[in-house]
Write a structure and sequence with these properties.
Structural class: mainly alpha
Number of helices: 2
Number of strands: 0
Distance between the termini: 42 Å
Shape: elongated
Order of helices and strands: HH
Helix content: 55-70%
Amino acid sequence: MRRTPSLGSPFFTARRPVHRTWLADSLQAAWVSGKAMAALPFDALRAIHASAVTAGFIQNSMLASRDFEHVVGALERITLGPLARRV
């Protein structure tokens, strides 16, 4: 009888590779946190837009929301370059 690996088996446990050092881990953590900090103004802009729609100052429309997201996404990609989020 052949066993298939399950999520609890050692085949699927996340282990830190031996060749990675504390410096590599620190640089990766700095990169991830830097990306999150750089994206904050764009997230704030999205939250402000959502609040304005909820309050009734901006039309509640799927097409208008799509257009707004396209503009903010393009602005984010142009401004942040490699730090911009990719979906």
